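Continuing from the previous page of notes. For each protein in this section, the sequence appears first, followed by its structure tokens. Read the first protein now.
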Amino acid sequence: MKKTVFTFMIGGAFLASSCSSETKNENQEQHSQSEQHDEAHSDEHKEEVKANFPVDGYEFYGTTEVKPSEAITVEEMVVKVSTDGAFEGNVAAVLDGVCKKQGCWVTMTNKNGESVRVRFKDHSFGVPTDTPEGTEVILRGVATMDTTSMDLQKHYLDDAKEAGQEVSQEQYDAITEDLIEISFISDGILVKK
């Protein structure tokens, strides 16, 4: 049975890099040339842009303005990717997880209970690692269909383990194939205060 998971990557390009620079090069070999190109630029840390568009009640992280009035739901975004092949814009969601290592990705669940991972463009910014589950966010970026390798799936478990979370051998053993999923790369996120 083929698993389908949704991944949001923040920024405009698929990143297979980890939260640490040491594993970034290990994962780089498993991706296409365009992905390798994007990863090669992930070390060029851009300064985080402070919002010149204050949004009451939200903290901004990223490099590109996020427009809450233009945000659609996760479900609407999934439909647009399914019908149009891609989506670019703003999405409103609720977090159900944050990378506890560096805040370089977040996860959320859509109404169908499917996991959605959001990664930030070029690792040039992140959210606070103590951002609680249930936090409302609005993110801006590009979504397309992509593949997450078995190695990268296991890497996410490694990150969780390194951050002190409990990870069982059964979770590793459950990873038996690459996942075809929506990947969303965002270059800006508003996090509800």
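Done with the first. The second protein uses the same format. Note its length before scrolling.
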Amino acid sequence: MKYTLNQIAELAGGILHPQSTKERLFTAVNSDSRLINRADTLFAALKGDNFDGHSFVADMCAEGGAIIDDESCFCPNSILVSSVKEALYRIAIHHREEELKALKVLAITGSVGKTTAKNMAHLTMSASFNCYKSAGNRNSLTGLPMEVLNVPAACTHAVLEAGMSDPGEIAKISGLIKPAAAVITNIGHSHILAFGSREGICKEKLSILDGMETDCITLPDDELIIKNCRAQGAVFCSVTDKSKEAYAENIKESPAGMEFTACYGGNKTGILLPAQGIHNVMNALLVFVASCRMGADPQKSAAALQAFVTEGNRQNIHTSRGIKVIADCYNASPESMAAALGVLKTGSGKRVAVLGDMLELGDHAEKLHSLVGEKVYGSADLLVCVGEDAKYIAKSAALKGMAEDNIYLFPAAEYEKAASLLEMLLHAGDTVLFKASNRTNIRKVMEILQL
């Protein structure tokens, strides 16, 4: 972006403080004051449950500028609007339609695996184009407008992640980013409270098509998606069914990662992905096919995937004290739990699953935690559950056939006891999985063990 303070005020429909430097130029926007070290980055004073960006407005406006919705913070070089979130969306809509007309966007959405697929897609697309990707978890109606405004003018393509928490969000995001193509990674149970069922979640995810000029969408071969997707341009990908238009074959797992052949468009392309699990083969296949459909060179895209690395607490696999550790505590759903257990299943030595609660499932909690318990049997030799709803995982694993002597259950507050037990159980050569929602105590167990 490249707008003066006065232009931003006009686009936002806001009021610029009369003592402002109207022609001060801004080329980026950010809501995190800690990341703003340049005067040409506009500060967006957003409010959250535990923070209020308005506390930093005066400092940000001394040499830069800010957009605010708290009149008590109105000062020189600030723009007062009724809602910062809505103002950013309004500015970003103008910017996308007028200044980024030629930008080709690949949208990534799905219940789990969005960020992983986004990072993979950025590799495959960057091998052929000057491509931007949305930062971190800026995948909402709050974060994506800033990402649209921050796309460098030199970029011809962008990979943008689209998330949701309430009905109607994906359609509004699609109207903003106007994808040329889209990928849905999967349909799971995340946000089931807001949508009532997987079918409701599926229909919401498919509304990514609403803002697209074409129906160039790439999807997994999930029966629910196949049933609900009416797009003529849909391509379904499979890791098991060779009758699909795109599929993976010759899948091999090794310490180096997953090796497979991507079959699409009459071509077969070998891919080596430095990540574990069949779910990551699907993620890679989806973005590889989507990139090909957008004109990327298949061989360059395949080679680029060899540089993939996991991000943050998403399935971080490493070795500590001779123990193979699978740390996956960014989020949790029955689907991501099953995927992580699939990786544990291939581990060496004693396989230990340390599982915690999946949050925000409401009345579905018992049923969905029980589904996870069914997956534990055969994937883990020992099960350590920490949390309140995790008891359903333990109960279900026992009903499925896991010996009760190999199952340990601790309340959430007793995570230190769980850590003490694991200190005795784990030895060099073993494999351990830590998996739970982000706000649980499973991460604290890892910290105590220093794994």
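What the second structure shows: The chain has a mean pLDDT of 95. The longest helix spans residues 278-293. We return to this in next week's lecture.
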